[in-house]
Predict the structure.
Amino acid sequence: QVQLVESGGGLVQPGESLRLSCTASGSRFSIYTMGWYRQAPGKQRELVATITSGGNTNYADSVKGRFTISRDSAKKTVYLQMNSLKPEDTAVYYCRLVAGLNYWGQGTQVTVSS
């Protein structure tokens, strides 16, 4: 059974930074895509960024230039470095692993407020 555990969320002021981490346990997959999605109150879950096992990345337009996704395949961990945070980045951030099937983490709250 694959489990994804996220960490690193919190409350920050506009312009500050946070780094989210997500570690996969129980995964035997060697080729998979991992990514971050977010869901704000009253809105649908949306893609933030993804990274393939080959290191190819994809970002939502709203976070390009501010967020960076990376992965440590040996640790089966994906990171999301979030800089220049804005109030509109406030959401629950979810980690996702795709290897045929979809696996989701439980989510971590990110709140950007002055």
About this structure: The mean pLDDT is 94. The CA atoms of residues 35 and 50 lie 4 Å apart.
